[in-house]
Design goal:
Rhodanese-like_dom_sf, about 15% strand, single chain, Rhodanese-related sulfurtransferase, Oxidized Rhodanese, domain 1, 4 helices, alpha/beta, Rhodanese-like_dom, five-stranded parallel sheet
């Protein structure tokens, strides 16, 4: 799989609302902190959970994010090869946090962080 051809966008270029965002990080990373509107499907679970991806709006790109951009590039390439319009988020959730985008934690009372 050639990852050099994967469409990529920086966090700064992402829409501020109405974003179709797929987070492919592992559960512990998700629990610590994630984008409020994201759908969480760990990379290894993606092929078995495509129905959830199909339920996302299909009138806009599907942005795929992980911690720094490696796993999400693989996921975006795989999704594109299977009919989706997927875009890798460069810099991942680390860049999301740096850009000041909203983060939520799954555990009440905990301050969200990107692991």
């Amino acid at each position: 799989m050639d990852l050099t051809d994967v469409p990529t966008a920086s966090v700064a270029d992402l829409p501020k609302s109405g974003l179709a965002l797929l987070d492919v990080r592992e559960r512990d990373e998700w629990v610590a902190g994630h984008a409020p509107e994201a759908l969480h499907i760990p990379l290894g679970d993606l092929p078995a959970r495509l129905a959830e991806v199909a339920a996302l709006p299909d009138d806009r790109p599907l942005y795929v994010v992980c911690r720094t951009g490696g796993r999400s590039a693989r996921a975006a390439a795989w999704l594109n090869a299977n009919g989706w319009d997927a875009v890798n988020v460069a810099g991942g959730m680390k860049s999301w946090q740096t850009e000041g985008r909203p983060l939520v934690a799954e555990r009440e009372g905990e301050r969200p962080e990107v692991l």
